[in-house]
Amino acid sequence: MVPSACLPALLGTAGTGWLTEAFAPSFMQRALVAGLVASVAAAVVGTWIVLRGLTFLGDALAHGVIPGLALAVLWGFSPILGALLSALVMSGAVTLVGRRARVREDVGIGLLFVGMLALGVVIISRSQSFSTDVTALLFGDILGVTAADIRGQVVAAVLVVGASLVLHRPFLALAFNQDKARTLGMRPALAHTALLVLVAVAIVASFDAIGTLLVFGLLIGPPATATLLVRRVPLVMTVAVALGASAVVVGLLISYHQGTAGGATIAGVAVLEFLVVLAAQETRRAVREARTRRGNPSGGPNRPHPGAEPAPERPVTPIDP
């Protein structure tokens, strides 16, 4: 991690005054470091959420940790412990509803999502500073992070990245072939629980910066954008980290110069990156199809050379392991 005292010198070499002005204050330097650390943790674990198609569960889990965080604020114990306890309760409840109740899993997740959010607000309403605490939990306060907050974020991010490296094979098998994972003795249920715990830790690493409501932007936005650009899982993670970091830098610059909310601006930039890449790819596809139609004015299929063999069909896989 780059010490805060070194940031002005590093940024000064980049040139432009609007950049150095924004990151000259110490609170902006802390916000930058906190945002970058949060973006790394969110991008790494968010990649697995996107690849497994668990975005709704990820969103629900982001809200499901609120009761634990609320208890931590109210009683003064570790937010990480509170979030992990809430995440375990949430994941256990989702599993129970999906296996035992005669309702679809998404229905159970939706109800638990609302229930955990409501429980968190009820708990935090017991606090003397109800409005301030709720706002901080839901939307974060990236401009108010302290050095101690950043140290906690770094620990959480290292845990997320380290565990993701150690559990890479089980997570990969779980994402692409759960039956094969069972055959290889990888215990998919245990890997799934470990993933949910890592999501909770990543949320804790991010909620100071952008809050539990907006963390979904960093958790899903950069990995989803990365899947549009690259195919290999390690590359998806790398590109997602870069996109998340760029969203933090651009979001903080906009926030400083335009006076907007820092966390919301960062989340908005992360979503905008996805929309821009998607629009660019759709435009390129439309142009390519238009050129194909111009080269085949009859509108019929392009016929191969009489002596040529037809190309074998190959399934289209969005992401390679």
TrEMBL record:
Name of the protein described by the UniProt record: Zinc ABC transporter permease AztB
Gene3D superfamilies to which the protein is assigned, alphabetical: ABC transporter involved in vitamin B12 uptake, BtuC (1.10.3470.10)
One of the GO BP terms on file: transmembrane transport
Keyword presence, S-adenosyl-L-methionine: no
Membrane disposition: Multi-pass membrane protein
Keyword Zinc-finger: no
Biased composition annotated in UniProt, kind: Pro residues: 303-321
UniProt entry keywords in alphabetical sequence: Membrane, Transmembrane, Transmembrane helix, Transport
InterPro entries: ABC_BtuC-like, ABC_TroCD
Region (Disordered): 287-321
A Gene Ontology term for the protein's cellular component: ATP-binding cassette (ABC) transporter complex
Entry superkingdom: Bacteria
PANTHER family registered for this protein in UniProt: ABC-TRANSPORTER METAL-BINDING PROTEIN, IRON TRANSPORT SYSTEM MEMBRANE PROTEIN HI_0360-RELATED
Family label: Belongs to the ABC-3 integral membrane protein family.
UniProt source species: Iamia majanohamensis
